[in-house]
Amino acid sequence: QVQLVESGGGLVQAGDSLRLSCAASGLTFSSYSMGWFRQIPGKERDFVASITRSGGIKFYADSVKGRFTISRDNAKNTVYLQMNSLKSEDTAVYYCAADPQSMGVRRPDYWGQGTQVTVSS
Description:
By secondary structure, the protein is mostly beta strands. The chain has strands at 3-7, 10-13, 18-25, 33-39, 46-51, 58-60, 68-73, 78-83, 92-99, 110-111, 115-120. The protein has no helices and eleven strands.
């Protein structure tokens, strides 16, 4: 039973930092690229960041590059999203995703339930 469980969301002020975590179970974690997506009501789910199986290559949306950092700890079956210099535009539900392909997340096989991030201005 594959599960991806996000945590770490909350309400912060613009300029603050937040770290999201996604704990995976029921899969061989190191065999999956992992990623983060975000969605606000009425809009499509957008790519934020992804990381390859061993963590060697990372991809970021232009809107977050330089502010967000994705990382993973395969020993803990956990992927993280460190979010710095948060902006109100970052407000969204953030979802963790897993994809068995090697070069980042393209077509996720699994999704977490999401965690709300709200950035006040």
